[in-house]
Amino acid sequence: MPNRYAYLGPEGTFTEAALRDLRPDADDRARVPCDGVAAVFDAVRAGVVDGGVVPLENSVEGGVTTTIAELIKGEPLLITGETAVPVEFALFARPGTVLEDVKRVATHPHALAQCRGWLARNLPDADAHTVSSTAAAARAVSEPGAPYDAAICAVIAGERYGLRALASGVGDRSDAATRFIYLSRAGTLPEPTGADRTSLVAFIADDHPGALIEVLNQFAVRGVNLTRLESRPTGDGLGSYCFCIDAEGHVAEARVGEALMGIRRVCRDVRFLGSYPRGGRATEIIPAMSPRSTTDADFAEAELWLARIRAGAVD
Amino acid sequence: MPNRYAYLGPEGTFTEAALRDLRPDADDRARVPCDGVAAVFDAVRAGVVDGGVVPLENSVEGGVTTTIAELIKGEPLLITGETAVPVEFALFARPGTVLEDVKRVATHPHALAQCRGWLARNLPDADAHTVSSTAAAARAVSEPGAPYDAAICAVIAGERYGLRALASGVGDRSDAATRFIYLSRAGTLPEPTGADRTSLVAFIADDHPGALIEVLNQFAVRGVNLTRLESRPTGDGLGSYCFCIDAEGHVAEARVGEALMGIRRVCRDVRFLGSYPRGGRATEIIPAMSPRSTTDADFAEAELWLARIRAGAVD
Amino acid sequence: MPNRYAYLGPEGTFTEAALRDLRPDADDRARVPCDGVAAVFDAVRAGVVDGGVVPLENSVEGGVTTTIAELIKGEPLLITGETAVPVEFALFARPGTVLEDVKRVATHPHALAQCRGWLARNLPDADAHTVSSTAAAARAVSEPGAPYDAAICAVIAGERYGLRALASGVGDRSDAATRFIYLSRAGTLPEPTGADRTSLVAFIADDHPGALIEVLNQFAVRGVNLTRLESRPTGDGLGSYCFCIDAEGHVAEARVGEALMGIRRVCRDVRFLGSYPRGGRATEIIPAMSPRSTTDADFAEAELWLARIRAGAVD
Amino acid sequence: MPNRYAYLGPEGTFTEAALRDLRPDADDRARVPCDGVAAVFDAVRAGVVDGGVVPLENSVEGGVTTTIAELIKGEPLLITGETAVPVEFALFARPGTVLEDVKRVATHPHALAQCRGWLARNLPDADAHTVSSTAAAARAVSEPGAPYDAAICAVIAGERYGLRALASGVGDRSDAATRFIYLSRAGTLPEPTGADRTSLVAFIADDHPGALIEVLNQFAVRGVNLTRLESRPTGDGLGSYCFCIDAEGHVAEARVGEALMGIRRVCRDVRFLGSYPRGGRATEIIPAMSPRSTTDADFAEAELWLARIRAGAVD
């Protein structure tokens, strides 16, 4: 049986675009839209699919909070890939409709909020109606007797439902992007590529002043840069919190491996979420304290030196 | 003219519940539902309303990403209050409907994801339909000829649209809560209450290793605990990021004031978002390094000592 | 009565040279040699003299340990000046003696250790005899019927006892220097000069992990560089220790003043030892974490900003 | 040929007492007094002796500065043992002399400074004369026609020169102690005992803000406590300095080994001085940030976990 992949549905969402980017060879039947982020996680866990795609950051249509909650508290899965999809909205209508005809526009509330400027300038007299997703808007427009004339949605949704683009780039910000992750069951990690990311969740002991700086120092002393840091209450009661951390590098590298061992020792618990190639455009970096001498060769040299001095050498 | 307050609409959302909690004396005409988080910010900025309420963390129906983006990059406003609203879903229907009648349930996709367990156990044969908000679901159910039999929504929405509760507590997690903030134009800060929170955004200089630990140390050396920390790309290009920080205490306190001055000095920019009473249940704390000797009295004593030694004393 | 100054005697020591450097206008009667470092401290404390000079670092003839012990535990005095004296040894003999005549050389054991190479090359057949100070060696050589032909001592000692230099620069290292401090009773601090040093002793609470880094962070977050750092047991029992710290800058500066207030708050005790012009050649610097934005103007700007935001401004 | 040991002479010093403590089985011929600390180092380096003893901290008769300079800059040797000798002064005279007879007392200047109180109370009319060491004082008293009636010296010196004790405990402080180290050529390290110390010198790169905290963090993140920390200029020019560090534990332990590798990576150079049993009474501790989870078993567990996650496991 060919591989199958779950994603946050319905068909035509930005998440489907992300899955197409991550698994370009998969055909329509291989892509399984799910009703909610948790359903994607569950499908992967149950082995119903080979992997799944969910939004992690800055999603238009949500899912991020649930994604993080599942990563932190759900039965563990591995992140084995990621991609960043530009958030580009277009106005789609049924073939034959022209812009002047558009009186009723459907879209998701967040998309509507991001396209207000364009609508005010170009369709000042149109009514906006919000539905449960941009893809649902496209589908609704495509149906016979649709109560809407056009949908603001992703290109993928417009095409899927047989619509025609009346305008593209209708969002007020052109640089928005959503980061999506690819989930797998435990198994083999992706090979290091030289441009990787490692994700983890560090659970801090309850009443431990300075614990956050202590965790960050575990990365800093090995020169490992971070790319994301976010505190989250664990929901287990007062004073119990965790940190969602993305770091540069692959767990197979010495600097990352040693940093993770350090965090393992000082934290109540640490959940390894995966090491995987960094996707899409370059992302922001939070530089560590010492970026020097952190290659595997540097670690190997230091290890040889340690062996020498343990054997009684003086240099 | 009486005070008016904007909030993330439509009527019946959890955000309206938050506004009622924060401004209990306001009547219906004083509450102005807005279409999107940005619209709430704009209404406050324009002076159309006296204040506004938006979700900041863990929102069921979104807004969080936009809220943070507006706080970071929009024309500045002050946070002058907050509250945490429990995310409690109920099943509402038109008067006369009983549970056995329910074949079609409407709700928001995120709410649906959180109520799946209850639906599977109690309404295994019902279809679920997603709409743009839980309040929109309630309204749709209330309309004559509604295509849905019941809505999963907040109590406030069910009551507003004249529905009756068929079941309460239908969410799969009972401890979820969303944190909402109250926005004001520049002006007077709330008085310190002894249980306050201070919010800010620290913008780090571009190529500065260790900058994050440096910022955290500004809090740690004054014994100021954090309650939230989140890195965010600023969107201004590679390596440019900022930190959204919530700290315990009020800017009027010496320890908080001195920490903010320190951050002001070492950062490219810092945006003060406000000091306000901590709302709702106690929240998680990220303890600073040294919790000792951080009262205003401790700071005053140290200042007296400094004056003495500057005058040539030896103790 | 003219001012009088105590110093670590006897006459002719490097300490006398330091006093001459620090108080060039004082004549012979104004300089009071004392028998031991503690005697200098006591003379200043008792008001018998106006000030006193003792070695602090790298002394040839000792005193450093006692100096530090007196600074840490004795009745407090202020350091109001410092100077660095090059440790330059010369070979002095009675007038008429030539190098070939020298069979018996007297000096202090530490001076002997530092001049061994020169003696081996130039006086291979001479015997070396150690006495209690290099000045005592010069005096012994000067006496009628002296048992020694020459003394290794400071130029000041040779001249004082009417001897003639047979050779200069007889030490094996040419770059050695000893740092001396000038002690005063409590009173007025020296004015800031723009190139000052501040000395203090920080006493850490007993059982406090991370206390050292906590103290160093108090300097780092204000961008105050250190020039010396030394841990010392306090002698008060297990786990009780203190740090002798020299920092760049003057307590009258905002960054230094605020750092000292911070240390005052987090430590069990802190003893301020003084702010005074940095003497002699430039000394080594231990750079703080953030050297930026630490002028008094930067602190004043931050204070204005704090006043603005406390008054309800948003930028 | 039996083993021979160099020490800072002359015979009868506290350093000889330290050597007797460290090598109790060595007889008189095995102990080789040297003229200066550097001479002890050289004798060990040249292989003339098997090991050597020098003072490291708080020495009465000096040597400490030279000891540290040799450890930092001289040809490397290993510290393989240490001991702490109480600084207890006694008054010794020739047999037959009684206290009332004592008119002229000889001793080293530092010893004199520490015994002043006793002399003032018990021998108010006696003259004090300073010589080059307390042992030289004892020897001088023992010689026929001695110009002194009694010597203040260590018990070991009085006994060696055939004198009798007139009084013991004549020092004004009873708790003073000097720490001595035993030097060996490169070869085998002492076995870990569970109560060990590791000494090293860390050379910082020139212009590197935060370097000190960076080095300390290398210990802190592995939970390694320090027992001594001292900054020293290297003499190589402006801004070039090093840190003399004593840490708890043995380089054979995982936490210490990993910390040393980290310092090796981030520093310009690091000189390992040895791991050896902690001698004498318990010494002061500078606690690291996190004392938890730092046993070899903790490190081994973390290493196993790393191997699991590198192989694709999720917990």
TrEMBL record, chains A, B, C, D:
Domain of life: Bacteria
Molecular function GO terms recorded: prephenate dehydratase activity
Keywords: Amino-acid biosynthesis, Aromatic amino acid biosynthesis, Lyase, Phenylalanine biosynthesis
Reactions this protein catalyses: prephenate + H(+) = 3-phenylpyruvate + CO2 + H2O
Pathway(s) annotated for this protein in UniProt: Amino-acid biosynthesis; L-phenylalanine biosynthesis; phenylpyruvate from prephenate: step 1/1
Residue ranges occupied by any Prephenate dehydratase domain in the UniProt entry: 4-185
Annotated site residues (Essential for prephenate dehydratase activity) in this chain: T178
Protein's UniProt keywords contain Amino-acid biosynthesis: yes
GO cellular component terms given for this protein: cytoplasm
Top EC class, one word: lyase
Alphabetical list of SUPFAM superfamilies matching this protein: ACT-like, Periplasmic binding protein-like II
Location of the ACT domain: 200-277
EC code: 4.2.1.51
Pfam families given in the database record: ACT (PF01842), PDT (PF00800)
Biological process terms in GO annotation: L-phenylalanine biosynthetic process
NCBIfam families per UniProt: PRK11898.1
Protein name, entry field: Prephenate dehydratase
